[in-house]
Amino acid sequence: MKAIIAKSYGGPEVLEYTDRPDPKVGPDSFLIRVKAAGVNPVDWKIVAGYLDPMMDGHFPLTPGWDVAGVVEAVGADATEYAVGDEVIGYVRKDEVQHGTYAELVAAPVRTLARKPASLSWQQAAGLPLAGLTAYQSLKRVGVQAGETVLVHAAAGGVGSLATQIAVAQGARVIGTASERNHDFLRSLGAEPVTYGDGLADRVRALAPEGVDAAVDFVGGGVVEVSQELLKDRSRVASIADGEVKNKGGHMVWVRPDTADLTALGALADAGKLSVPVEAILPLSEAAEAFRRSMAGRARGKIVLEVS
């Protein structure tokens, strides 16, 4: 099979498009013929070595955790899907080596769910990691219908999904974003506010009694701002503030979860969740996909298409 590999830690320049052996398929895993692989910031951070203190990496290393594709073979005790089934997955394993930037990937059953019928392959590939991050962050702070939730970086890849999920759950969403993204947030059902100095006052102007929950997808001190506004200071979750637990909130590190991924697919098929795709590149151009992700300006997902 063709795959992207890195033979050492480094930047986009270490990525190679080359031939690799087909993956071995464990007893509770499925071999997936990849149609598209989502690109996430964690992918280039892994290749840069940033996650080495917490996860073992083995070279040559194929990056990628998001996938959409078709079941090509099943493991000895894998019964949940059949050959030909269309699936999506957040294929994070305990160690980093055999990722989704490849024509084939072996995916444990715990990482997979059925592909939403309403999404294209490219949209479906962009859903798992970002969607699960958003969904699990909202779940961690217990967002309920009728509550007001503050979403930081609400126009970003994770934030835009969190905004849609919270709206679908019946919550009122106040979302932070630059002014150029305010109309986009309104189209998702949120009330936009500009981030930066004076944020707490701008939120209070919309919600004088404060907010019920907050989710942070950007870092930079917004946990403290959120706690000024929260009725219960513990109801804040962050993926970006390493000190959030010491501040009384919740750290979220997204987990593979079939039930959560299935719930996201149901929202998509009900017309309540869309996955904006900004760029589709061939697998061979993974280095360019890394560069675009590292620039940090993409509003929609960057996706690698596998022929």
From TrEMBL:
Domain Enoyl reductase (ER): 10-304
Swiss-Prot/TrEMBL keywords: Oxidoreductase
Pfam families the record matches: ADH_N, ADH_zinc_N_2
EC number: 1.-.-.-
UniProt xrefs under InterPro entries: ADH-like_N, Chloroplast_QOR, ER, GroES-like_sf, NAD(P)-bd_dom_sf
SMART domains in the cross-refs: PKS_ER
Record-level Gene Ontology MF annotations: oxidoreductase activity
Stretch forming the signal peptide: none
Highest taxon of the lineage: Bacteria
Protein name: NADP-dependent oxidoreductase
Organism: Streptomyces mooreae
